[in-house]
Design goal:
heterodimer; A: 413 residues; alpha+beta; 2 domains; two-stranded antiparallel sheet; B: alpha/beta; Rossmann fold; 5-stranded antiparallel beta sheet; 10 strands; globular
Chain lengths: 413, 209
């Protein structure tokens, strides 16, 4: 009979204590797992979606809002900028690539993004079916859009004004799906891409009157579409995604935009870091909370192993009589602690993944949706931590069992 | 053969024991008789290798327990060659009867032998309790299983410490008969330590303390 079997049977002899300790450990590890995989996914998403974008230029306002709306597509844009100004900026010698974005419409919550073919190169997109948009009102849709809305090449739909509302439909011009992208693993999976001219045509003066009266006022004020300005006749876009030729431009170019134009430059790296540090405060608090639960679990495992040792003092002495060495008795006790915390840790990791999947499924914003089906190598450290806690909690009882005087125990009995 | 020579043990200045020399031949059945506090348990603990004497030799089948074996080797030797029956059965309650016997084989460093387990349980008429837990057994069955655990590894020496103290005459006879038959069956030397004078007539050899 293996020592681990003996330890396991001993644990099961007190099922309620075993369950309570497992619950405590799994709760602590579960929170840590949830934090670990959610913050990693969130960070990955932030980095993955902005990795080739050095700067975002848009209307003045909150730089974080500009980044969130133009890179992650989860907030309203700060406003529009003049296409002429944007084109002038794009011709700056420091700029390697400038990708225009025109936002303002959605279809069932998926954003319709007016852009040009440089967007394809920026995100290194590839097609699963069909072709990229080539005419006005043709769209190429992301893989998640296709699967979620069951859209395929040739399908038609009406876009809605605003970024989240689907009530104010542009009924005069249906979009037609010309192609479906392969799964990219970034924000483009959730986008409907079209030519900028589609956005401009959709928001012509005549079209404006066709908006239904239930238009979301918030969508109008913040999510104002990139349109042709009625006052000047010049076209507008929402923002410009910029890549530099040289890293040297990191300091000079944003300063130039912010000081010399009426536009705003925002760095995705800086704003993402700022966003993550804001969220980080909450994550740190939860980590302390999880750490506290783990501490309570350690004390609880110690108390239960210690108490069970007092109850089983004679059992252990009988094992010694049967030929078990002191070292074996020590190992049996240590393994009880390790088994308990190991099972609790594995249950906690599963719990963390399950909770994150539930949270992910209840998230409204598809662009930042988290998933519990996400394995990380670092999770192994949670199990190792669990094992260490088991050893720490069981070491004192194990030493006591090792040192116990069996002759005395048997005589007393 | 078991030999005890010049064994002395001292708990403190006021409480020390010097045991007279003793030689037991293989297969003999002995009574170790003495009143409470005379040092019976101390001698038993010394013979079973769980209490090292201050001086003297304990030799079982040519193996000097305290001068030839390390602590770890002595533990294993005890598991393989010495079977002990206590006044109370004290089986490990979270394990079945069979698992208690398997544990005795495993701790002794022997391979698990289920045929041997069946054989011993059958000889003690508790073979129908293999999968039962100790709390499902009667006192008599517990006593039989504890004897089974002591003889499972065919020990050279079978020791019973006060096996009859809390039993009536009928049960005393029954337990002694079991111990004697099992020691004969397994070719083990039997030593019964007790203060119970009722058992005196059952033994032809006695070590009086």
């Amino acid at each position: 009979m293996r020592l681990i079997t003996i330890s396991w049977k001993n644990l099961l002899s007190n099922p309620l204590t075993f369950l309570l300790n497992c619950l405590l450990i799994s709760f602590g590890v579960g929170i840590l797992t949830l934090l670990l995989i959610s913050s990693t996914q969130f960070k990955d998403k932030l980095e993955n979606n902005s990795k080739d974008i050095d700067l975002v230029v848009g209307a003045k306002g909150s730089p974080l809002q500009l980044i969130l709306s133009s890179i992650y597509y989860i907030d309203f844009p700060t406003g529009n900028i003049s296409l002429t100004d944007a084109q002038e900026l794009a011709r700056n010698p420091m700029v390697k690539r400038a990708v225009p974005l025109g936002l303002g419409d959605n279809y069932n919550g998926f954003r319709i993004v007016g852009t040009d073919t440089s967007f394809i190169n920026l995100y290194d997109l590839s097609l699963a079916k069909g072709n990229y948009w080539s005419k006005e009102f043709e769209v190429t849709i992301g893989a998640s859009v296709s699967s979620s809305l069951n859209l395929k090449v040739g399908d038609k739909f009406f876009g809605s004004h605003g970024l989240t509302s689907d009530q104010d439909e542009h009924k005069s011009h249906p979009y037609i799906v010309s192609g479906v992208l392969t799964l990219q693993g970034n924000v483009t999976d959730n986008l409907i891409l079209t030519d900028l001219s589609s956005i401009w045509s959709m928001h012509d003066e005549g079209e404006e009157s066709e908006h239904t009266s239930t238009a979301n006022s918030e969508a109008f004020s913040h999510g104002e579409a990139a349109v042709e300005s009625k006052d000047t006749g010049s076209k507008e876009i929402t923002s410009l995604l910029i890549q530099y030729y040289s890293p040297m431009s990191v300091v000079l170019f944003p300063r130039f935009v912010n000081k010399s134009t009426n536009m705003q430059a925002a760095s995705p790296a800086l704003e993402s870091a700022r966003l993550f540090s804001i969220i980080g405060i909450g994550i740190d608090t939860l980590k302390w909370f999880a750490g506290f639960i783990m501490f309570i679990a350690t004390v609880s495992v110690f108390v239960s192993v210690y108490n069970s040792l007092k109850e089983r003092k004679y059992d252990l002495a009988v094992m010694r009589i049967m030929g078990a060495s002191k070292e074996k008795i020590f190992l049996i006790i240590i393994m009880e602690g390790v088994l308990l915390t190991c099972i609790g840790s594995i249950a906690g990791i599963l719990l963390g993944h399950f909770l994150l999947e539930v949270i992910g499924n209840s998230q409204g914003v598809t662009q930042t949706r988290l998933t519990g089906v996400y394995l990380m190598f670092d999770e192994i450290y949670l199990i190792i931590t669990g094992i260490c806690i088991g050893i720490v909690a069981a070491i004192i009882p194990a030493i006591q069992a090792y040192r116990s005087d069996i002759a005395k125990i048997i005589s007393k009995n | 053969m078991i030999s005890i020579k010049g064994v002395h043990y001292s708990y403190n200045e006021d409480n020390s024991f010097s045991f007279k020399d003793w030689v037991v031949n293989a297969g003999e059945q002995w009574l170790l008789l003495g009143n409470s506090g005379c040092g019976k348990s101390t001698l038993l603990h010394i013979i079973t290798g769980i209490l090292a004497p201050d001086k003297g030799d304990v030799v079982i089948n040519d193996t000097n327990l305290y001068h030839q074996l390390s602590n770890k080797e002595r533990d294993r030797y005890r598991g393989q060659h010495i079977g002990i029956v206590f006044q109370q059965a004290h089986l490990i309650k979270s394990f079945t009867v069979e698992e208690n016997l398997i544990m005795a084989q495993s701790f002794a460093g022997l391979p698990v032998n289920k045929t041997r387990i069946d054989e011993v349980l059958k000889s003690l008429a508790v073979h129908n309790k293999t999968k039962s837990y100790p709390n499902e057994l009667s006192q008599g069955q517990l006593q039989r299983v504890s004897i089974a655990r002591a003889v499972i590894n065919k020990p050279a020496l079978l020791i019973a410490d006060e096996p009859t103290s809390s039993l009536d005459d009928t049960n005393t006879k029954a337990v002694l008969a079991l111990l004697m038959s099992q020691s004969a069956l397994n070719q083990s030397t039997l030593v019964v330590a007790t203060h119970d004078k009722r058992v005196k007539d059952f033994f032809s050899n006695a070590y009086l303390m």
